[in-house]
Structure formats: C-alpha cells, structure tokens
Here is the input.
Amino acid sequence: MPSELIGFRERLNAFALTRPLHELANSTKYNSKGYDMFSLGLSVLVTILENMVIGKQFCNYNTLFGFMDQCLYKNYKENLDEKEIQELVYFIMDRLRNDGRPFDYKYMDLELGEEVVFKFHLIQSDYVEIKAKEGEQRFKLTESGLDLLFRTKEMFRELRITISQIYLREQIKAGVFDNALNTVNELYVQVLEVKNELRQLKSKASRNPSTIAFENYQKVAEKTYQQIAREQEVFKQIQALILEARDKYQFKKLTEKEKHSLNNLGKVEANLMIVVNNHNDLFTQRLDLGTSLEEILIESISSALREKLNFEREIIDTIISENADIDRLRQVLHPLLSPNIKQSFNIMKALTPQYIPKSQSEKAVNSLIPSPDEYAEKLALDQLKKQTKEKKWFYYMNLVFNPFKEQKEFDLKYLLSTFPTKDYDKIVSDPYFYSLMITLHQKGFDFTYADEVVYSDTESDNLAYILCKFLDSNPELKTCGQVKLYPQAEVLDLGEHIGVMTNFRFEAERVADYERTV
Amino acid sequence: MREQYNVKSIDQALSIFLNLIVNNTLSMKDNAELVECYRMDSDVRDIISDIIEPRANITILNSQDTLYLSPNTDNRYFGYTNEQLRDKFAFGNMKKTNEVIYTSYFVILSLLALFYSEDSLEDVGRSYTTFPEIETFISTKLAMFESMESLDEVEAECKFNLSSCISFWNDLEIFNERQEISNSPKTKLGFVYKVCKFLKDEGLARIDDNDREVTLTEKTFNMVNRYYTDKMRRDRIMSILCKKGEE
Here is the structure.
C-alpha cells in the first residue's frame, strides 16, 4: 500500500464534515432572495459555538432568530418579519441537523480497500432542567461540529487543549491579555468537550457495548488520564504565571493602557479558574470510567444475547398486516410506561396527628430562638434596612436611567458627569449603587413588563417592584424596552479610595426593535 | 431459588422494589446505597430476580448507574387502566371509547419507529423528529392498511383494532397554522402533540420550547435497549403481535 494513503479515512472524514454546508448551499428554496446559504449555515454554527463559551447564555432558537434578523439586516438590508425569520432558521437548522438523522457519507477507503460509511451529527440539543419537570432546549456543537470549526484553526482534536495552553502561556508572558481572554474562552469549550466525550463514551458503552472493545475502552481511559494529568500540571504553571504578571502591576501608578491590561488580566484569571475547576472534574470522571470497566465487560457478554429490533418493520408493519387488537398493542407498550400505582385512602388517617410546620410549632420550645421582643426588634431593624435599600435604589434608578429620556445609549463616563457634584463621592462609594449596576449587568432590565408586580414583605429586595414604581412615575421610559449594560475596553479611575471600574455602555433596545428581534 | 435469605438482604431488596414502584427509576443520585446493593450484593439480586420479579410480574432493568422498573407485557397489577388512558387522551365532548387509546398507542409506536429504524442501535442515532413528520408517518402507514384490508373483514372484527383507529384518525381535523398546536387536540397534529405530552410527563420524551421537535430521553433509550432487545422478550412480543391466527 502506498504510504501516501496512510490516514486516508481521517482526511475524507474531515472533508465529509463540510458536506452539510455544501448541500445547504445547493438548496434552491432561497435562490430568489440571493442569500449565500453556505455562509449563513456556517454563521449559525459559529453562533452556536460562540454561545458555548464562559458567561454566555446558551443558544436556543430565540438566539438564532435574533442573530439571523441582525445578520440579514446588516448584509442584505432585509427586514424580514418574525415568521419569515423563523422559517429561514428552521430551514437552515433542519438541513444542518439532517432532520435529526445522522449524516452518512459513503466512500471508498483507498488505504484499506473497503467501503466506509462515516456517520455524524454537527449539532446536538440538550434540555436544561430548570423546573422540576420542564426542560429548556439549547443547542451545542457535537464533537464533529467542533472539529469542523476548529479545523479552520489547524488544530488537531487530541492536542487542542495542549495547543491552547501553549498559546495562553505565551500570551500571558507577552502581556497580550485581550487575546489571552479569547484563548481562555476557547479552552473552556475544549475542556467541556473532553468532559462530554468521556460521558458519551460511558453512555455508548452502556447502551451498546458491542461497539466498543473492552481493550479499547481501557486504553482510552488510560490515555485520557495521562493527558489530563499533563494538562493539569500546565494549568498550575499558567496560574503561577498570572500571579507573576499581576505582581508587576502592584505598588505603582498605572497608565491608562496598564489599567486596561490589568483589568483584562483579572478577567483571564477569573475565567481560567472556571476552566481549571471544570478540568479538575475530569479526574473524577476518569475514576468513574475506571470503575465502570468491570461492568462493561459483563455488559458486553450479556449484549451478545441481545437482538436488534426494528420498530417500523417488525412492530408497526406487523400490526398492520395482522390488524392487531388493542390488547396486543397495550402489551407491547406496557413495559415502557410507569407502574401507575393506585392510591388508596385510609379513613383512619383523619385521626392521625396533623403535621404542623416547624416555624409555628418549634418557636416556643426552642430556647435558641429569640424572645418575641427581640424578634420584633430584629424585624423592625430588618424592615428599616430594607426600606433604606429600596429608597436608595429608587433614587439611583432616577439617576441612572434619566439619560434614556434623551438618548438610546451612553456610557458610564457620561453618566458620572451627570451626577450632582456634591453627592458624587457618596454615590460612587455606595454599595447599593453597585448592586444596582451588577443586577443590570447580569440580568438587564425589562421596561416593558411589570404592570402587576406585587410588593412583598418577605422578598429580600423587591427590585422588580421598585422598577415598576419608578416606571409609573416615568412612563415615557417604558418605550426603552430591554435595558442592558455592556462592558467596554476602557477602564475609569473613580478615585483613590474606590479604585477602577470598566466604562460600561448602557443600551436600550427600544420596544419597536425589541419586538422585531423576539 | 435458595431456602433462606437474611433479613437485611430482604429489607434492601424490598426497599429497591418500593422505591421503583413509586418513582419508576432509581439512580445513584437518588440513593447510591440501594443501587450499589443491587449491583454488588448477589443475595439482594437473587431475591429480586427469584421472588419479586416473577411475583410482581415486572422486570428490573439495570443500566450503569440507574435502575428502571418495567411491568411485563401481561402485568395486571401495575399500569394505566383503559379508563385512565381514555381520560388522558380524549378531548372536548367526544365519546370516550377505546379508539382513542388504540390511536394513542399507534402514535407512540410510530414515534419509536421513527427513532428505531434499521440501524438505530448504532452509536450515531437519530436526535429528533418533528410533529409533522410523525403525522405523515402515521397517515402513510394507515393508508397502507386501508389499501390492503377488505372492509367486510374489518367489520367482522369485534375488538378494537387498526380499522377503528383509521376512522378516528380520519375524523381528526387538519391543523391550521394559525392555531397553537398545544391547544388543538381535535387536529391530527394536536392529537400527536397530546400523546407526546403524555410521554413527556412519563419522562420518556422531550418537546422543545417552540412545540416543534420531539426527542426521546435517556430513560427511553435505556429501557428500549434493555427490554425490547432481549431475545426472549423480543420473541414474546412478536408472538403477541402475530397470534391472530391462533385465536
């Protein structure tokens, strides 16, 4: 066999990953619009990747609708309505996900002289458990999807983390912290991907052990462990480098550029901590993999006795040909449904002692609980603190949101210039001012909702209620829609005792714009 | 079967069984001690497999870190009654007949068929399907039956079977895109949604936020792969489906 063809399969697999995009480009549905479907498809993949990095909201259909709306407006000056945007996104996603089926690409492996079918998915969806039973869908790139995008950066999958670590080390040494932050974000995605791979390997082995040879499983587990150990060592070195780099900024007056660098270095450090914590989890998963080995061996023996079942041909078509009655269908499906135990009521339950919540029954007997007077005093004090906090928030909302009456966006620097001079120091050193800013940065405020938020004495802050009260007295601000805070590169020096702060940009997505993107 | 078991093992085996009949699944996260008992203690496993499983007519399926309880095909102790299912799937003022249950069963089996086609036990399987696709699949299959069955024979049947399902299905309205799928059970698409919602409540399926896609859960994959692929159980299911001639 000619040596040129070694690894032929891997090369063809890499080409195959781009096929869904080519097929999308060849679709004719949007020919009349003149959209570049290849680019739009790739941009959807990149958007999903972007939303996998630290601190980003996960990507769901609404994220993609918003992205596509902006993208079409920017590139084609098109203002599609909500339904048209949805239709286009569904069209692209269905093609990139092959309607849920794996893509299969059949070709001749010239190295081994056999026909190969390469199967893959580019996108997977997860359901995030938010309430007890409800789940919210989010999209992630699969291993193949990530491969496709990372290949444009010429990185081999096995070495991605190592290569990123090398980049990061060099970037920190050179003091290029903007780029270092991007590298840390990429590292986060890569570490999560390894976690996912390990989880999938385990799940694959448990679902269908015949696809994984026992020796292979052992080899993968061992190799993964060695690599993780090496990577962990490098992470320690990088963290030490960051500390060294930070030391250089200590005890000296910083220029604007240095403040900016220090600010970014702080972000690199914080995000790297998240990456390292996730990476440490890999060790636990690895141990888990090791303990599963015996079970997988047992499982692979018992799986030899299993048979495949084609539900369409063997069940549905048999029901049709036999005109099976309802009892037979019930028997086929019965094993899948829950036991549904019949509940019964014991009439004597009426005489059993009734449950009284702890808060009422134990107050009197527990000596650790304060006396009624102490309790009333504490309650009054808490109430006073709460009222002070709420009054301050109301006052700060007036200050912070007032510029929106004139303009759609402004930055912190401008906002500070509007503060009353005599109160300036008091405001910028007040923790309640910062708690409002942090909430605004993390969650944003929705000025359109909220006509019926009820004040609650038990709620610790009642921020939503204060916002409603504020909007009642400033109804013209309701058109602001979504108000958000975005970080900018510039750092402001707020004085010796307060320190530095990012020059945030305050932005209102006006109701009309907002409705268009939702 | 052994003559004697110690009290501790009986206690643990019963705890596993009771946990499973209440919650249907028992994972390491819920109760690591009991799951470990099942996996490591042969006495506990023997009590379950020799006494509890045959007596209660159930099968306990073991998948890595989770146990599942599955009532056997002819189990009469556990499971939904027809009346309960009629209440779940019927809508409006419709007469609550078994047609609605038969059609729901057919919808569930069609959903499984879309995921478990020829090579679906391979590692890369289907990740989702959509409501319109399930509807089209059912309509195609029922049309196939209509074309091969003579009406006289159908009418001669006294039990509810596929022919009753066809009339129920054909009476369902066509979904109007201006409606909400979750609020239109009288349409074909809305009925499919209603059945999938039941599966969602059973922890067997998931529906996306836009009420467009359906996917199976890890629980379903594990249960299907453990239960239906067992050679003996598979043969039993096939014999149940093909026993028309024997009656």
Remarks:
- Chain A touches chain B through 63 residues (CB under 8 Å).
